[in-house]
Design goal:
2 helices; 54 residues; Putative iron compound ABC transport system periplasmic binding component
């Protein structure tokens, strides 16, 4: 079995590897953690605007 790293994106390759190794539950945990970290980083870079009372 070989996986061509030039065919498909990194997430696609990770999904294929997880399928081949039977580690889909672990991949799902890592993907959720990654998405939460991205959300936190975006909130730090673009904090919500604060409305000042007039």
């Amino acid at each position: 079995m070989s996986i061509d790293h030039l065919q498909g994106s990194a997430p696609e390759i990770y999904r294929k590897l997880a399928q081949l190794t039977g580690t889909q539950p672990r991949l799902a945990i890592l993907e959720r953690r990654y998405q939460e970290q991205i959300k936190q980083l975006k909130a730090m870079v673009n904090p919500p605007a604060v409305q000042r009372p007039q």
